[in-house]
Known about the structure:
7-stranded mixed β-sheet
Amino acid sequence: QVQLVESGGDSVQAGGSLRLSCAASGFTYSTYSLAWFRQAPGKKREGVAAVGADGRTVYADFVKGRFTISSDNAEDRLYLQMNSLNPEDTATYYCAAYPGPVVNALASWEYNYWGQGTQVIVSP
């Protein structure tokens, strides 16, 4: 079955960097749309970055220039490099997948497979 397992979350100080990883299994990774979402306590889940099967990337405005999404089709891994972190980035980060192209790459309803999340805490 499809499995997505995130790792790499940690506590860091503002200005620091983290690299999140999502290990995928149980599906033909290279044909899926993939994305990172996050959810802070008391807030709704929001799209952070996405990559389509064609390699095109989409970013939320609030992470442009700071975060980079990448996909390793040989290792079936999705990454999110996060630089210049600030306390507003504190959240649980989830990877998500859908078996095909999506219309709105940063909309949670487009994806039907989700990981369990990894927590990122950024202190001032």
